[in-house]
Amino acid sequence: MDSDPNIRHSIIADIEGNILATNHRPEVANYLSPEETEASLKRAATVWKGRNELSPKIGKGLYAIAAFEKITRMTFPLGEDNLIFVSLGSDQVRTDLHGGGQKQIVEHILNILSRDPTLA
User: Fold this and answer.
1) CA-CA distance, 33 to 100, in Å (whole number)?
2) pLDDT digits (tens, 9 = 90+) for 94-109
3) CB of 112 within 8 A of CB of 10?
4) What does the alpha-carbon distance between residue 119 and residue 17 come to, in Å, rounded to a whole number?
5) What percent of the chain has pLDDT over 70?
6) Contact predicate 78/70, CB 8 Å
7) What spatial distance separates the first Cα and last Cα of the chain, rounded to whole Å?
8) CATH superfamily to which 7-113 belongs
9) Does the pTM of the predicted model rise above 0.90?
């Protein structure tokens, strides 16, 4: 959350989509109810498991991006059994146009997940 002002919400979930931890920027309202968020995470986790089935042929998934009119959701694997979901505002609803763009945020999160402090 601290890495970019345009990150609205971050969630760590298990591979089944069950929420383990969440962080929400206080001044930003959620678009989805808690039940809708949970259902969305479960669907995304199911899709991620499908990607994992193909990993012997195409390699491990690094991240996935789903872009909507109001938000962009990024999904990253966290180890073998967990996922990190990061929600940021679309271009129309970003709070800080001087914050990182989608590419910079992806690169920054991948650097954090690599656990290489010189890259984060």
Assistant:
1) 27
2) 555 555 567 777 887 8
3) no
4) 28
5) 84
6) no
7) 13
8) Dynein light chain 2a, cytoplasmic (3.30.450.30)
9) no
